[in-house]
Amino acid sequence: MEEELEKVYMAAKYGADTIMDLSTGGNLDEIRQAIVKHSPVVLGSVPIYTAAAKQKHFIQMTEKDIFDAIELHAKHGIDYVTVHTGITRKGLQLMNEQGRITDVVSRGGGLLAAWMTHYNRENPLYEGFEQIIEIAQKYELTLSLGDSLRPGCLHDATDNAQLSELKILGEQHRLALKQNVQSMIE
Fold first, then answer.
1. What distance in Å separates the CA atoms of residue 149 and residue 31, rounded to the nearest whole number?
2. Nearest to 142 by CA among 76, 73, 80
3. Which ranges constitute the DSSP H helices of 86-157?
4. Is residue 40 within 8 Å of 12, Cβ to Cβ?
5. What is the pTM of this model?
6. What is the mean pLDDT of each run of 10 residues along the chain (186 residues)?
């Protein structure tokens, strides 16, 4: 905990406008609440890390676990959350057909890709985007729409998988703005 708070103090001291809590171990709720309490700048987080970490094996997380984690982060006072809402089964299919070198670069997107593949289901954050909007409205939460299929190397840049995801993220961004929810694309 002391090390995490020291990072907050140092980041603020040297001019950070925002801090991202990317914690994946320890008592995540306690760490998050302490960072919120002590941070003088805007805070972001990745709720799927919490949903995954609360299971014996991340693949056991449920859709409810994922949405509960988003709401918990908002309740704790996080200003913005990264949610990987644009990675879809179609995007994964395009990625596999193209023979990407680095596949899914994003950790959160990778967790969702593995979950989707394991259960042969669509991304619950894609299907439940309206629920995310409702949480964001309730807590004045800003959405950072995570780009799971961004390229990890030049070979994969602007391939069909990335473009497919970016199109979805653009549509979701516009939908969020129409519903008075601040949104950005990672």
1. 29
2. 80
3. 89-98, 107-119, 124-127, 129-139
4. yes
5. 0.93
6. 92 96 90 94 97 93 97 98 98 94 95 97 98 98 97 94 97 98 96
What is the rounded distance in angstroms from the CA atom of residue 142 to the CA atom of residue 79? 6
Element (H, E) at 150: none
Which one-letter amino acid corresponds to residue 131? Q
What is residue 141's DSSP assignment?
Answer: P
Q: Do residues 86 and 145 make contact, with C-beta atoms less than 8 angstroms apart?
A: yes
- Contact status, residue 163 vs residue 94, Cβ threshold 8 Å: no
- For every residue of 57-92, DSSP letters joined together read SGGG--HHHHHHHHHHHHHTT-SEEEE--S--HHHH
Judge whether 146 and 82 are in contact, CB under 8 Å.
yes
Please, are residues 148 and 110 in contact by the beta-carbon 8 Å criterion? yes
